[in-house]
Amino acid sequence: MTTKDDGQKKELLQAKTIVFRLFKFRPRSEKEIIKRLKEKNIAPKVIEKTVEYFKTIGMIDDALFAKGWSRSRLNKPFGIQRICYELRQKGVDQDVIADALDEVTQDYDEVETVVALAEKRLKKYSHLDKQKARQRLYGFLARRGFSSEAIYKACTGLRATHNERWT
Fold first, then answer.
1. Which CATH class is domain 63-104?
2. Which residue among 7, 18, 62, 85 is buried most deeply as judged by most CB within 10 Å?
3. What is the CATH number of domain 110-166?
4. Helices and strands (H, E) in the chain, number of each type
């Protein structure tokens, strides 16, 4: 009986070490932790105990993770749609994502962010014809997760300020 308990204790210690190592690089969602432990062939009961341990010490908290991830991605800048997609991929619950984004985006102006990013990017497209530049700019902004509405408003504003480039 003790050899089984020793083996389980050893595996629990191994699982905790793996999780601490993962947290050394960046915060993780609960689903990410579980996935990595499964990849390392850790027993399901040990995974459950490990996750519970890290929840009790406050290191696994999807709400806190979602807020931090959202803040860092908004600073890149990425759009809300992309951030939402990334968090869903990381296994964060939709309600938790919505709450995190509501809190983080209170002072966030997507159109202003898109305009600033578009102005920077527009310089790279100076050698292209107007239509091609508009297509590439729209594609770039859409891939970064900005809404069509924000992109349209930003491009309309750019037309007014950069008339020679957009008409």
1. mainly alpha
2. 62
3. 1.10.10
4. 10, 0
